Amino acid sequence: MKLACVVFSCLLLSAAGVAAARPGAGSDPESKSTFASARIPQVATPAEVPRVPFLVDWSAGATAAPLADVSFLLKAPAGKEGFIGVRDGRLALPDGSRFRIWGINATMQAGLPAKAEAPLVAANLARLGLNCVRFHFLDRLAPTGLIDASRDDTRRLDPQQLDRLDFFIAELKRHGIYANLNLNVGRTYKAGDGVRDFELLGFPKGLTYFNERLIELQQEYARELLTHVNPHTGHAYSAEPAVAIVEFVNENSLVEAWFSNRLLGNQTNKPSGTWNDIPPSYAAELTGQYNTWLAKRLPPEALARLRTEAGVAEDQPVPRLRREEFGQASKARFQAEGAFYVDVERGFFLRLAAFLREELGVKSLLVGNSDHGHSRSGYPIIASTSLLDVVDGHVYWQHPNYLTDPKTGRRAGFEIKNTPMVDDPLHSSVVQLSRSAVAGKPYTVSEVNHPFPNEYAAEGVPVLAAYAALQDWDGVFWYTLAHQSVPGLDDVVAGHFDFAKDPVKLSQVAAGALMFLRGDVQPARQTAARSYTREQVLDSIRLPGSEGPYFTPGFPLSLPLQQAVRVASLDGTASADFGPVAPSPIESDTGELVWHAAGKHTGLVRVNTARSQALIGFCAQAKGGTEHLAFTLENSFAAVTLSSLDVRPIVTAPRLLLTLGARVGNSGMAWNAKRTSLETWGHAPTTIEPVRGTLRIKNLSPARGLTMQPLDGAGRPMGSPITAKKDGDHWILPLGEPPTTWALLSVER
Questions:
Q1: Per-domain residue ranges of the chain
Q2: Closest CA relative to residue 348, chosen from 282, 265, 249
Q3: Distances from the Cα of 22 to the Cαs of 39, 114, 412, 417, 736, in angstroms?
Q4: Which residues, in sequence order, are bridge partners of residue 371?
Q5: Are 55 and 686 a contacting pair, CB within 8 Å?
Q6: What is the reported pTM?
Q7: pLDDT-based confidence at residue 47 (cuts at 50, 70, 90)
Q8: Which fold has domain 94-254+339-516?
């Protein structure tokens, strides 16, 4: 599978006449989005209901309170009881009660709104049930980031940008929303920084772990940001209880750089992308550190054997392995070099943690890095990150594969498989993410998404919300709200990852908050723990991709859809047999979640709990529905959720939130013939495939009536309420007019 989240999950780069692309590897973080404007008639395929415009209005709340509001799930102000901590391996409030994060990323300028806009954005995030914002790519030059762009170095923060951040964080705090501050994400260096070969580094991934100057600059940046006193809260960020998490680096691993062949020393010109080789001088520095490490760690006879195998004399350094040499390298040589990289990562994390805690007085929880590359083993990364407070993971369902024009070397579009996750449960985002959770440590997912324009993206939010609760994870952050200031955005889905103008994903975020934050889906009753030897952890790198995403031969990939799964040890004894693969349908041990998949276009996930229920996938498989929810739809694929809007179960609740998700697009958007890329990205307005058909709400306690109020993109009333017809113990409602992605159901008793 493709490396999850090419970390520069940032901006869209598109061009008229070619496939549009969200930047990843090879993108400029400050490039601007452009969109083809040709108006191409939209022609529905047999599997589609024709799309219609449906807009998200971020001015909601300025004049009328939205009906769709789950802000009651949040406790305001954030941090009023003190710092989020850890108890019994879970995030907890100071009184010991469980705390979960249902969050979203805000990338670059989306995290630095103007003061006039910040209160509006914060209020809207709160009403959607989002209780934490991950501030991503703050370490960029102003105006996209915090760093003063007027200097010949990157060592000072821009006062105006910092004031924007301060005010926004204060507004978020006021609404009960915490902050997650990322330190090193996309910083590039200038001549005045005193960084060797600065022009050759790009994002210096890997180098940040072992080069002393880069480590010094990371610490300096952390001091500048975290000791700064926010005048709107009165606290330095190091002592701000509304800062839940501080992250060290983002998708940046020395071990990963090794097995991805990015430590070769061939970078001799300015890099154009995110993932690059390192310059020759840094490769020589790393080889020197490796040989010093070998001399300290290995007995002379073992070191002599390594020299013999490498074919070097006693007075010559042992060369480091390239990926293509992994297969023929002896176990001793491979294990030694792998252990070196793990040791460097561990040393960096522990050093920076001590600096933050002891010198800066940081009281927030610390995260080192994420397990983010599911085409390879992540256990060597987790072996280091699990030394800190929280373990973290990233994944994207079918991350776009970015194409390059061989003649110009420039971006030439993207490709996606564009297939439904519900058809492939054993390689789902749930299964991929589940490999990283460690027993005794909180586990968060700080980046996840079903990237646009995948036609089955409506499955992403509700499926992950349900299974994250089953796995009893501690937090989920969707990637990303946007890359620009949200209130001024055009009514178009601007990039592969932006939520701000996606009317289906935003409505589902509110439903997901109810499932996950409120705990509507019970945690699994059983936990399957697995253990690895230290040698296994490193040898897992050499396993073929077919063993992914768990890289644990014999592990049944259906298990994470049945029980909770955790890593018990990465330095213990090897786990024995795990049991057979579960047949389809795969049922959770709580009985609340069932995943059906028996071939192409047969996938369906059923969620059946007292307060939240859902049918997600191919509608023909949804016969019988859940206890309270059933439908007959024109759509071939949809995600429908039903949730109580207070503490009562659906059967007695007076108000219910209904979400209706299918395909989302832009006007004029045109697919290629294979529906694996876009020939035209499209333009405003955003469009939805309305969920059309008949809805049945059933098995309610005695009720005298039921009405459905369709809602607009801001959660406000749209049109008149629709009165349901009674048919035995069913209440029947028509869907599709007016077209919407959500509605408020009111039960008269």
A1: 94-254+339-516, 527-586, 590-748
A2: 249
A3: 21, 25, 11, 15, 31
A4: 393
A5: yes
A6: 0.94
A7: low
A8: TIM Barrel (3.20.20)
